[in-house]
Structure formats: structure tokens, C-alpha cells
Amino acid sequence: MKFDTVIVGAGTAGCALASRLSEDAKRSVLLLEAGPKDANPWIHIPIGYGKTMHHPVLNWGFSTEPEPNMNGRRIYWPRGRTLGGSSAVNGLIQIRGQPEDFDAWEAAGAQGWNARSVERYFERSLTCVTVTRIADKSELVDAFIRGCADLGIPANHDLSGANQEGAGYLHLTTRKGRRCSAAVAYLQPARGRPNLTVRTGAHVSRVLFEGRRAIGVECDGERIIASEVVLCAGAIQSPQLLQLSGIGPAALLSSLRIPVIADLPVGENLQDHLALRLIYRCTKPITTNDDLRNVWRKARTGLRYLLMRRGPMAIGVMTAGMITRALADAKTPDIQFFLSTVSAEERGAKPHSFPGFTLVYYPMRPQSRGWVRIRSRDPREAPAIQPKYLSTEYDRRIMIEGAKLARRIVAAPSFSPYVLDEYKPGRAVASDEQLLDAIRNAGSSGYHPVGTCRMGSDDAAVVDPQLRVRGVEGLRVVDASVMPVLVSGNTNAATLMIAEKAADLMRA
User: Where does a domain end: 418, 433, 448?
Assistant: First the structure.
């Protein structure tokens, strides 16, 4: 059977694009997802983030190559492997980024992607995705917001609003206390359309070509023919599929005896937010740790969620956010903080036995650039991922300043009464050199990989501003990999925007 459009990857972008394209009853759409249906209940309970973080089926569970700038560590990179993709397993935080981000995209050659042009696609995404501001107040979070105000960082009730700077309760992709993933928001309402076919457990191995025209895909040994192929597999697997199909750096492909169809820098320009978690002991038993370790409070937490869809189980992990400037010469906000009312040795692990909370921060515009490269012709072998964290002096300097800023926040008059001590990395880590070493030893991914199929108009771009792969026909990439530069915040909202605009480009 031949389809008008085959979409590879039912993640954030794939679900949104499949829904929008199938609104046209004359267009037949096939959506392919390597993972299973989103039937696991922990997907839909916001606090289930901890259950899916290392899930062997619902998460691809990638790791980087040993990172020379991170003391040789392999950094864990979770990616969703189910309907909804990473929107089904992420922290639910919805932040668009700054207008300057998208103006920078256009300046880098992505014509038509400036802030004014993409605004309506952000707004259109909200007709499907429900974004809810956290309503349950927390004594600890309120103290954090006041502590930020002590430092001159104002309260901000919408970190995606006209002014991104400030501190406030987060907006989450939840609907009535349940996760509103792209599968829930876009795919569920569209599933009854006769022109939309969705297949799970469908692992695509390569794009099929006749000459330089894409004619379909190979999926589990089956040839599926389509008028147009769209890769929505994300910043790791979209470049992987392109390289397996003969589109990528000629030297890499030739070394693996893959015939070169188009010599493009596929997999280069990899960017990610590098995060550091600072863990604190709280002076009062008011944290989620306490809710989960006391049998009566745990029962109350569960009942509150079951009966009212409220409380910690309806929130997830992060409760408050703060965006400000860590460097004195920053022209716009350059760093983002999150407050989690839970603490653990690592994300997704069992909470500590003491009242604890976590401050997580990352610089929003890292300058380090890495790569994604296939290791072999085996489509089931994970590609090599090398983000090259801390490759620039700017990235090292702002990470150090971020840790110092975190300590100023916890020392602020309004917040310090809630802070017993710094559990990790600990006050003994004091000098710039010690802080940088702590970052190398404990820094982790912000889970925001982008850029590996960069959009632009120059010879180094992989896709053009219409998201068409350069040098071939009938093939597009629609996901976070096309971002020329990482946005100032979480990437889910911008990825939805990309899919919304892509639907208009394709229909045109």
C-alpha cells in the first residue's frame, strides 16, 4: 500500500504533524513508532516521571561517549520510546524560550522563523495541548520565590510571557491532573480518521531512494512506499536514520561502506543544556521526601490524587522555575533554575530519607557543539553521542557562576530559614576550581538535545527553511534536530511549534 506521507517517529513532533496533516481527508498518513502504545499508567501520572526515566521499554536510555571534559564519564540521555515520545516521559515543563532565540534562527539562515512569525504556531499548539499553572501552593516554593526577590529577581507568573525573567510556579503540560503528552493532545482525537494509520513496534531501518528521490522507508524488512517521507525521530535518531540511508558526512559513510547520496553535515551541531543539581537538607518536614517516606502522608498523597487529582502526584518533579542573568555582561537572561521539592542521589532514584530539596540550573545558551554519528550499518545499534560539554571558556565560566548564584539564593533572608545545609556538592567545595571539578563529576544532561539536522540557507545546513533535506527530494525532517540554536528553556514547546509550522509548509 502506498501512502501520501509516512512519518517516522510518534514523538512530540510526529504526533502533532500526523494530526494536522490528517485533517485533510484526501491525504493518507502513516505514523510509525518503534516503541509500544502509551498504555503504561505511569506515563499519565505526572509523578511517574521517576518510573519512566530508566524504563527498559519506554525509554531508549542512551548514553554519551566518555566525555573528556566531564572526567571521562558517560552521561545518561533518556529519550521517550512510546506514543508521545519524550513528551510522554519528560518533566512536563512548558517554557517557550525568548523572542531573541527565534530572531537568531532567522539571522542564521532560517528565513521565516523569526519570533513574530512563529508566535501564531505556539498559540495554535495551545488549542490541542493543555498547559496548566501549578495551583497547589507550597511553603518551600513561596520562600524560594521570596528569596529570589531578595536578590532583585522579581516574581513572574508566566515564564513564557512577554518578559521571561523572574521566578514563579511552573506551567506544566497537564490536563485535570494527568499528563497531556503529544499523543494525548494530538493523536487521540485523530485516531478515528480513516486516512490516518498508526503502527507501534515499527522500527524503521532506512529511507528508500530512487536516485535522489525518497520513495518510502524500510520498516522491519517491509518496504513502505510514500510520496513524501518525514523524519520526526528526534535529535539523535533522525540523524542516525539519515546517515544509515546515505545522507551525511561522506567520510563517515564511506568508512562504513554506505553509498553516499548527499554529503551533508548530518549529526554535527549537537547542542544540549548541561545541568547541575545542588541538594539541600530542609529544616522543616515539608518536602515531597516527607510525603513519600511517612506511611500516613504517603497514603494521604495517594488518596488526594485519586479523589481530587491534586498534590505532589499531579505535579511531577519540578515545582518552581527562575530565569535570570548569571553574567554581568548578559544582554538577556542567560540561566534557568528549577526548584524540586524532592531530593535523591540521581534523577528517578528513591528519595532521600531526610527532608530535602533540589536546585537544578543550566545556562540557556551553551556554546559547546558536539555530534551524533552511527557506529555501523546496524539500525538497532545506538549511535555514538558526543556533546562536548564545557568545550568553551564561556560554558565553564557560566556554570561556575550558576553554582555561586544558587548559593546566594539559599542564603537569601527569605529562604535561608528553610536550609539546614548543602548536602551536595557540599560547602567544602568553594573555589572556582573545586566548583568546576564538581560540575565535571556530577553535571548531567538537561535532556534537551537539538541541532543535528540544522535548518538554514548555507552549505552547512542539513534542511532548508521549508525543512526539506538539501540535495534530495521527497524528504523532510521535522523535530528538535532542525533547531539552528538551542532555545532559552525547555524544548517541548518549541518542538510543537516546529511541527505546527511544518504542517502549513507541507500543505502549501
Answer: 448
- C-alpha cell recorded at residue 387: 556533546
For 307-356, the pLDDT digits (tens) are: 889 888 888 889 999 999 999 999 999 999 999 999 999 887 889 999 99
Reading the block at residue 463, the C-alpha cell is 534542511
The reported pLDDT for the residue numbered 349 is 83
Check which CATH number belongs to the domain holding 262 and give it: 3.50.50.60
Cα–Cα nearest to 285, from 294, 277, 272 = 294
Contact present, 415 and 147 (Cβ < 8 Å): yes
57-66 residue pLDDT tens: 999 999 999 9
The number of distinct structural domains making up the chain is: 2
Residues 249 and 323 in one domain: no
The reply to whether 448 belongs to the active site is yes
- Give the span between the Cα atoms of 7 and 245, in whole angstroms: 16
C-alpha cell at 28: 493518507
Q: Which residues pair with 32 in a beta bridge?
A: 8, 199
Cell numbers representing residue 471 in the block: 540535495
Residue in the structure block whose three cell numbers are 507501534? 200
231 plus 303 within the same structural domain: no
Measured CA to CA, the distance from residue 86 to residue 199 in angstroms comes to 18
Q: Which of 55, 171, 352, 448 is catalytic?
A: 448
Average pLDDT over residues 196-224: 98
Q: Is the Cα torsion angle 245, 251, 256, 259 positive or negative in sign?
A: positive
Q: How far is CA 135 from the centre of its chain?
A: 24
Strands 384-386, 370-373: pairing is antiparallel
CB of 284 closer than 8 Å to CB of 138:
no
Q: How far is 368 from 75, CA to CA, in rounded Å?
A: 15
For 325, the domain range is 135-169+274-363+394-448
C-alpha span between 358 and 340 (Å, rounded): 5
Asked if residue 425 has a cis previous peptide bond (ω within 30° of 0), the answer is yes
Q: ∠ CA(170), CA(174), CA(178), 5° rounding? A: 135
Q: Both 344 and 429 in a single domain?
A: yes
Q: How many CB atoms lie within 10 A of CB 163?
A: 12
The pairing of strands 222-231 and 475-477 is parallel
